[in-house]
Amino acid sequence: MEMKGKDGDKNHLSPFDQNGTQGKDGRISPSWRPPSAKSSRVGDEEEETGPRFRLYDKRSWEDQVQKERDAQRKLDKNNGKAVAHLVDGELKFEDDEEEARKTRDPTLQEGNILPDELSEVFTVDYYGKPLEEIDKYIKDKTFVAIAPRFSNKYIHRFTATKALGCLTPWNPVRKLAVYIATNQFFDYLVILTILCNCVFLAMPDDPASETAEYVFLGIYTLECIVKLTARGLIINKFTYLRDPWNWLDFVVIISAYVTIIIDFTSSPSTGEDDGSVFNPQMLRTFRVLRALKTVSIVPGLKTIVGALLRAFKLLFEVIILTTFCLMIFALFGLQVYVGILRQKCVANIPEYNATPSKSYLAYYDEWIKNDANWYQDGEGEYLICGNASAAGSCPSGYTCLPDIGENPNFGYTSFDHFGWAMLTSFQLITLDFWEDTYNKVIRAMGPWNVLFFVIVVFFGSFYLINLMLAVVAMSYEEEAVNTNREKEEKERKEAAKDKLKKEAAADKAKADKEVAKDSTKWKPPKEDGKQSNGTNNNKDSKDSKVSSSGIHLGDNDGDLSTKTKSSKPPPKIIKGEESTGRNEPGTLVDRNHSCMGKCCYCFIPWLRLQNLVFIFVSDPLFDLFITLCIGVNTIFMGLEYHNMPDQLVTATTVANIVFTVIFTLEAVLKLTAFGKFYFSNGWNNFDLVIVAASWIDFGLADLDGVSVIRTFRLLRVFKLAQSWRTMRVLLSIIMSTLGALGNLTVILVIIIYIFAVIGLQLFRKSYTADKFGEDGVPRWNFNTFFHALMLIFRILCGEWIEELWNCMRAADELCMVVFLPTLVFGYFIVLNLFLALLLNAFGSESLKGSDDNEEEDKLALAFGKIKRFCCCCCNRFKKTPRTASVGPDDIDEEKQIGMTDLDSDTKDKKAIANGTLKANGINHDKGEVDKAFDAKRDKFSDFDAARKASKAKDSTASNAGSTSKAGETKDKKDKKDKDGMALGDEANDMDDDDENKETVVEDCLPGFCMSNHALWSDFDESSFGKKWYKLRYTMCKIVEHKAFEYSILVCIALSSMSLAFEDVYLYTRPELEAALYYSNIVFAVLFTIEMLMKWIALGFKKYFTSFWTILDFFIVVISLASLIADAAGGEDISAFRSLRTLRAFRPLRAISRWQSMRIVVNALMLAIPAILNVLVVCMVFWLIFSIMGVQFLSGRFYKCKDASGEVLLPSVVANKSQCLAMASTHNYTWVNSNINFDNVLSGYLALFQVATYEGWMEVMDDAVDSTDVDKQPSFENNLYMYLYFVAFIIFGSFFTLNLIIGVIIDNFNALKKKYDGSALDMFLTQGQKNYMNTLKKLGSKKPQKTIKRPKAACQAVFYDVAVSTKFDLCIVVVIFMNMIAMAVDHYKMTKYVSNILDILNILFTTIFTLESVIKIIGLRHHYFRQPWNVFDFVVVVVSLVSIILEDLLASIFNPTLLRVFRVFRIGRVLRLIKAAKGIRKLLFALIISLPALINIGALLCLIMYIYAIIGMSLFGNMKIELPLDDTVNFQTFASSFVLLLRLSTSAGWNDILETMYLQPPDCDPDYATRPEGGEKFKYSTGDCGSPAFGVFYMVSYILIIFLVVINMYIAIILENFNQAHEAEEVGITEDDFDEFYVVWEKYDPLATQFIKYEHLSHFVGDLDPPLGIPRPNEIALVAFDLPIVEGDKIHCLDVLIALCKNVLGRVEETEEFKELKSQMEEKFQETFPTRVNTSKTSSTMQKKKEDVAAKTLQNAWRTFKTQKQLRNLTKMAMQKAEADENEKNSKTRGASLANLGKRLNSALSNFFSSSRPSSATSRHSIKSQTTVTTPGNSQRKSKSTLQVPAVGPIYPAKGSDKELEL
Questions:
Q1: Whole-prediction pTM value?
Q2: So what's the pLDDT on residue 869?
Q3: Residue 1174 — φ and ψ, nearest 5°?
Q4: DSSP code of 1389?
């Protein structure tokens, strides 16, 4: 049974058109023919009629076998060489190397959907049956089966060899198995089984789950057998076990059978652990992996997992680098911090007289080991202390002793051996609870150890962890680009089909309706509020408006006509679909269902009413009114709080009723007006749902427990999105991402599920009360499935270490098996994919901004109407004659709307095409950022003004802009931005420009003061005026001079530094206090003088229009005001104190004078509008959650506590009244949590803590335990409250906070384009840029001379060893062993181990010393040419010094100092980096980023400096309560800075905020206490905190540092990683050039820059990819057409450029490109003079042509000689025949034949041994063939390195094969 395309049917789209289709590289590929088609072309025309599907049978198998034999024979015949001919002087090769390399067609891969072209000619009868292979490139013996799933046809591929050794593809059993295995219902059954199985796995203690297990196992076994029968086992491709997913199934099934066998064979026991060696529980956990089977069955999941796995190669490098760095950090900790966390404060020993029974030593030992004598802090933890300088000290009566008791945190936090050191370092890198380790180490070792943490956090956490994000984001982006490309391709085809259909329909319509020729059709709108009819004429789209419901509004002329015409003629009724923006007078539009007209009697009046309502609803004022109502309603909802007065309760209730009625009316009116079109808009449906929910809420108001329905009211806030574009864009981003996240979410759920079930299976019986003592079983555990899910979710949020400690207390180190993989897979990989998806959606969504502006038009129109109405009233009042038109005048409207995109669709398109991705959702023109810079920025106080100005400029000259683009860029070089930074240049080229600047004296006063020209010109002419001008000119010169700026910068730095000394200890140093007082006066005076000088020089106009000078002015005013206050004795008045605090802003003045810092700040300023926009939308999102929190939890966080602060059980105290009654007797208090949901603002703070994952546990615990208002909380009473927080973390924190990262990265990229790159770059395509960048890199490299082998024999031996790769490998092995030896180091080592380690250390040091000695002797002074060698040398010297010092100075020096020397050994480990290329690349990305990161680091330090000084001023005298202590506080600048450094990662900021809530009676509101001596002194806030200041201080700091500056850090790393990776993607990196020259040295040891032509093929073959081309590479080298100079040599640069071109592909040559190329050529001529001085004699193409010509001549000559010999032979044979006739009688026939044979033999051998023709060419080629030997090929004589292909005759004679066989 066959299926063919019929001869007459030409409309079938074949997969590749008959004439061949164009491939992606622009070449024509031959027509697609079914693989089964025979290769002969004659008489096979019906084969060409298109694709066909044939059932696979025995004949198909024979065809495949025959095909394989033919291919092998052809390969043997040509000996694997390319066969070439000369045709008309051009070389032609028989086989295309690229075609031959292809192994499969990417569109026809296993698991893909059948392409449309094939799917159209496929018949349903063939579903699930074996068909012949449809992919012509596959060389293996295979067949396919096509099967439907989810309404798509999928390709399944099988091996055609016998399955299980006996079943052929046409065997009925195997056919049935293939049919079942590919059947969709079989898949659905398996998925259903998996889902059921997952449910049972989550209930491990249910007896039914054991029974069900056997059923599931049976189904899985059946599935496995079916697939094995269909596919075969493992030997061939496409068999069962060749698919990794099947391995997963196989292992799960086998492990299940193993457990069953073990269960049956082992004796039945009741206990879980029966003492048997093997515990089947571990094997049972394998069942969980079945959940992963869904991945292999659902197609979308496979692609996402594919992306993950593709990312894994790069990710693997990042993980190796991270592990390597972790090891370095751990080794450092091991050397420096070993044992220090055991230091505790022990009470001083009382006097003791030794007795015989107990010596003093024994008593001492007993005393220090008794934990009752150790000092505990307020939370019951033992205080860690240190004896180093500035470390934490013990309270009086206690001494700090080492090695007391266990390490902190149940003994898990320490650096005592390598394992714990790794875990602690990993905790620091993931920033989870790292503040705990940070505080403890600083207490034990002093504040200098901050440096270690800065490196770990900024390098480890921010760089390495974000590299993971960069890798995942990039691989996802590539994946997304590919899918988009496929989608676009599909859409293009669909569009082409639709177009044909539409054209046909349009012709028909044209014939039908001549009348409506010019009108645009009106269609119902689409979901997203955009107009669905995209084919609007520009004219119409300008005139007609769209309402928020997406319905066309009639223009006002139409409105008038409908009002005026009311009765006489019968109205004309047109359908809603046919209505245009403007309808004729007297026309009624019918927007109802068709049946309405038939059954309704008063249809015409109804239509009139409907049209009137339509006009009313479509009015912009109606929309404005609804928007205002939404806003006011939101405010009323946000007003609710705990203990509201009754009047307010009544007011909110009434407001709720009023707004519900208004929104109901709105829905009714719109339903009336729009009729059936109402439901075609998403927003209308949304409104309707909310209205319905509001009424249901009223109905159920009295019932308890339905407050959930009240939350529906909150959704009204989302209605704002209709008229607020940014919110709409963000919502659409979230919605579109949710779609894209669908598959990813499934994978995340699978991961959470799997780890939750593994935890449940392994640990559910471990969490028992006896293991946790008085702490009780922790809240977060694995006891039930819900708890396990929540715990895994918590780990995914990055909070894992504390729960790991709890788990290890319950079940030992086995917990790491669950926790660490969850962290790596869930937190690092999948969550980063989420982020990548978001950033991706962000970019593409914000580009679509221009479509959505109709809503703003509506509001702008409404405001325009109001404005006109007011103007009219005013004008009437003034009695000014004016014609007021009722309809809006089009031109007026556009002016009012400003820069909206009303005017034309084309502008939209242009904006989309050129727009930079803008985060704030306003669509900017292409050069938006450019013009913000170009408009002379010093005239504007900020960027926003510049932006507005550039917009105004656009609106007047938008057309001129495009034409003068080239001119603009040339002028741009001369312009400078406000920072004095020439655009497009780099910062360091700036200095000399500034000095040549002309001094211009600006006007002194603003324009309106200078308008009286006569007065001012008289003044200018007067002698005083001239002197005044001269003075101002001189001042200008002074003010603009570098020296003046620098001196002011020094003053700023000194005055800022002086602020750091004003701490709480200042009263103990009166001299310093006096010095600071006077220096403060001096600086105030200096800055005042500077200000006055600038007033004179710049004039008031310029001075007060620049942001930076205004900032200077304010700071000077503050300084003077605080001085006056001090003089008046008002320093204790809080208002004046806060003025003094504001002096902390002085450092800000440094920014405007510091070039690199100003760039960063400008970047931030440009991003601020966008960030604010997103922040405001986030606030609205959070508002919904906050109001929800208030509704659910207000007043429920109160609790009754006893005197020690413990919360009482509800069985002891049930409610508030009981608590207050027992307050006097038991000292109970009824208190509220500081962080609560009592009102919306408190709710915001609580949510901010949840979003930053700091203090969220406490909030969640309170919420989960909450019962009712004024009732005592009960443990986990409200368990499902967790879901509220989970929802908030996903939508509130995850989406919205990550969008801020998106905004910053976006703005950062726009700005980067601004400052980087030359003017010409704008006109280059991406390919050309890649090519130019590669050329630039290439110009900087040259061949190096190889270091000559020394003449002296002994030195030569050293040289050989030094350059040998084996020696290097040995050294790497030694480094590894050294690393292992260092890792063995641990706390309290035995003397034996420590001696061994010392010996090993000396041994390794000796080896490394010997290595450097060998290299120095062998390489002589060249050793120091390489940076790595210098590094090795330094490490060796330091190691030697440290060994010597350790022995000599052990008695004199502090042992910790010696430890620091030992750290230098770690340097040896760093040498491994040299060996690893991938790690080098990742570090290279960091090195590129360093300059930018240093700028951001400087800004970070500046902000921290300011906050440290403000903190000291506001909170320095606060009472020290936990978590504040003697090292963590705001008392001195150092401690404030150290604390803020920790807070910059938002670590533990909630604890610090808690202390700022300190209020009486816990503190003294009037008096503060001195830190030394404890005396009290009067102070405005006493030693209490100030909650309002505290919240503002902490939240602003976290927002600025954590969300903005640190995200810029991330943006730069992502960007630079992308650049480094792009260089790799482009294909060529610096490393490749280095490698090129390393290989070149072998062929050109003297660095002549030339190699011999005959070595070329070997040289190119020896290179690694991407530059290398493996041999045979002859066709490629010939195609390069490289120039050959005298002596048959080729220059390195020519080879390198050709190879680069080969990697980068074709680059299109434009004028700009040629110009740049010629510049590069000139540069090369300077760099490589030898290349210019040689003359070209030939080229590789020419050589090959000569070669082929020679071969062709030889072959022709041979053919001629053979034919001549054969003619002679024939003649001789005929003569012989005559002679034979004569001698017939005497000789037998046999003898004559033998004689003939001999003669033939001799003649043929004569011919084949005859010499070749002696043409010059061939002689030359013979010579070159025999004499060449190459470095790599000396043993193969008489073979050219350039393998000449075997060339056949050009025109072989017919039947020549047979003749030659004779």
A1: 0.76
A2: 85
A3: -65, -40
A4: -
